[in-house]
Amino acid sequence: MPVSAKSAAEYREEARRLRALIELITTPALRQILLDAAATYDNLANRQRLAALPPPEPIRCGEKDVVVRSYRYYYLDSTDRVASTGLIDCDSDEEAQARAERLLAGADDAAIEVWDGSRKVHYAKRMQPRNSGDPAASTRG
Predict the structure, then answer these.
(1) What pLDDT score was predicted for residue 64?
(2) What does residue 74 show for φ and ψ, rounded to 5 degrees?
(3) What SS3 string covers 61-89?
């Protein structure tokens, strides 16, 4: 049975409640678990907020309608938390997927998601961790 998503405000409230509970806990391990849970709720709230943004308008080129969409991409860390975000302009979902694969190949992040408004277009996870000692390794695109 699918779980319905909460609103960004509801996720933020959950995070606030967990942080209030943390103040009462003295066991370090339990405090860390609650801190991680609160961070997860904050991350979910941010994703909901960003997904609720209207998609950017297609670009027009003079008299000719050129439908180029701006897709949002999210670099994800090894726990699937958003590390950073950006925009790419593409003609199609397929082009956005291919660009995302290239972006991920040149980044140190664990995964990438591509969204068109509130519609997830692509998710890709790095098959092997990058060698951080490699001087030829590039940074985020």
Answers:
(1) 60
(2) -125, 120
(3) ECCEECCCEEEEEEEECCCCCEEEEEEEE
